[in-house]
Design a protein that fits this description.
By secondary structure, the chain is mainly alpha-helical. The protein has four helices and two strands, in the order αααββα. Helices cover 66% and strands 12% of the residues. α1 packs across α3 (31-45). The longest helix is centred in the N-terminal third of the chain and has 15 residues, at 3-17.
Length: 68
Amino acid sequence: MSTPFRQFQAFHAIMQRGTVTAAADHLGISQPAISNLLAQLERRTKLRLFERTRGRLVPTPEATVLFE
């Protein structure tokens, strides 16, 4: 699998499942791996996809558009 695909797969899983932990369980990888893939995607796209609030990820408007 190519890296960009894996990054988008992690993003999609977070959007669908609502948490990094649930996304990691769904994809069968660790929570730190999901967080790393998300950080890579944000650097690659130069978009902030989630606001970090009290340990939770809240999708930004950009993330919502990208997901749709």
